[in-house]
Specification:
The chain contains 13 helices and 2 strands, in the order ααααααβαααααααβ. By secondary structure, it is an all-alpha fold. The longest helix has 36 residues. Helices cover 79% and strands 1% of the residues. It is globular and about 60 Å long. The protein has 2 domains: 195 residues, MFS general substrate transporter like domains (Growth Hormone, Chain: A), CATH 1.20.1250.20; 194 residues, MFS general substrate transporter like domains (Growth Hormone, Chain: A), CATH 1.20.1250.20.
């Protein structure tokens, strides 16, 4: 049955997302607990780096392929299956902690599995959004998702740290399993639209190539992905080395770090709140580029902060993080409105893989560079490079014309399973 996103599908989406946010809280708590246990047990930066790598590597490697499954398979069943497998992995982890048989390699292996599940889960959830949310509500819905996800990522570690004072690790991990049970109820009750294929006998390879072909030929889309990947790489040193920057460049302590970090979180939440109430921008790409440019200005100001002037640093960080949600939400909305519904999984997966790949590369390179130069010089170099890349992209690529792409007509049908 042909349909477009309407109030009914939107209500189903809100019900679905509420469950997913609860599940995200459980996952955030579990992630913090595992990383904390690795930190205390090994007291090794090498193992922490390995844990981060094993969590990210499956996303980078698998996402371009899992995106095909997100477009080919029953999305409702795919999300349910992946969530169930992650819940099983959590139960296994609980048993190991309960029996005292946990080892660093078991913890790392299960972190890797969580990355594999995320490689399936994220593209699928992203793919269903434009098929359930009316286009005039997409931007604000993306803003709300950004706002609430940011709040969950803020609350999760705090809650985990508090629970560590009164509960054993295996007891805390039950929260992750409990939130899975909460999230699965809305998922089983709603109907998720399914994109109807032009041909039911298309091969996996054909679908994979089709996704890359769209990215290559859609006007301005390839420059957008390259730009997003490059900018993600340039922002990574700041998120990685902020504590180092405060302690060794500005001789601050825990209080100063908490003050600046609070400013950072406030900017993220305020930016997400703004995008959740702001109606559509007429020229999304222009606003997006301007937001990123202002974010780099904040980045540069933070780098130029006079020694010990933490109020100035906090204000600079606030400018930076206030603008990033605006840019991220607009890029996501542009993708959802430009990419055909039957390619959302593949295109979102490729974008996610490249953006994720930029993070570990940025971490490694920035960690090596600060062995020879001050972090402030690295931050300043990254911010100025980002401004130049933005100007070049706007003047000499088709990224400014990306919204002129029109969606290929597709048919979606209600999926009863």
């Amino acid at each position: 049955m042909e349909m477009k996103p309407d109030h009914a599908t939107f209500r189903h989406y809100l019900f679905f997302r509420s469950g997913q946010l609860v599940s995200l809280l459980g996952s955030s708590i579990a992630q913090f607990i595992i990383i904390w246990w690795i930190t205390i047990t090994t007291q090794s930066a090498l193992y922490l780096s390995l844990a981060s790598f094993l969590g990210l590597a499956p996303i980078v490697i698998l996402a371009p392929f899992t995106g095909v499954f997100a477009d080919r398979w029953n999305r409702k069943m795919l999300i349910a299956s992946v969530d169930l497998l992650q819940a099983v992995a959590t139960i296994i982890l609980i048993v190991f902690f309960w029996l005292g048989g946990i080892s660093i390699w078991i913890a790392l292996l299960l972190l890797c599995f969580r990355g594999v599940f995320q490689a399936f889960h994220s593209p699928t959830v992203s793919a269903i959004t434009p098929s359930m949310v009316p286009q005039d509500k997409l931007s604000r819905m993306n803003g709300l998702n950004y706002l609430f996800s940011g709040a969950v990522y803020l609350v999760g570690p705090i809650l985990a740290a508090v629970l560590l004072q009164v509960w054993q690790i295996y007891q805390i991990l039950w929260i992750d399993f409990a939130t899975f049970l909460v999230a699965i109820i809305p998922l089983l009750m709603i109907r998720i639209p399914s994109v109807k294929k032009k041909s039911e006998n298309r091969s996996f390879k054909v679908d994979l190539v089709e996704g890359f072909s769209f990215i290559k030929h859609a006007r301005g889309f390839m420059p957008l992905i390259v730009l997003a990947t490059a900018l993600n790489f340039l922002f990574t040193p700041f998120s990685t080395l902020l504590s180092y920057f405060i302690v060794f460049d500005h001789f601050g302590g825990a209080t100063e770090l908490a003050f600046v970090t609070a400013s950072l979180q406030a900017g993220i939440l305020a930016g997400g709140l703004f995008m959740s109430v702001k109606k559509e921008f007429k020229n999304k790409m222009a606003v997006c580029m301007a937001s990123i440019f202002v974010a780099f200005v904040g980045y540069a100001l933070a780098a130029l902060t006079p020694t010990g002037m933490f109020w100035f640093m906090a204000l600079s960080v606030l400018i930076l993080t206030l603008c990033l949600p605006v840019a991220n939400v607009l890029i996501q909305t542009i993708t959802q409105t430009v990419v055909p519904l039957n390619m959302q999984g593949r295109v979102n997966a490729v974008t996610m893989a490249l953006a994720t790949a930029a993070q570990p590369v940025g971490m490694i390179i920035s960690g090596a560079i600060v062995q020879f130069v001050r972090a402030s010089y690295l931050f300043l170099g990254c911010s100025l490079s980002g401004m130049l890349i933005l100007i070049f992209s706007w003047l000499f690529t088709d990224v400014k014309h990306i919204e002129k792409n029109t969606k290929i007509g597709v048919t979606i049908e209600k999926e009863n399973a």
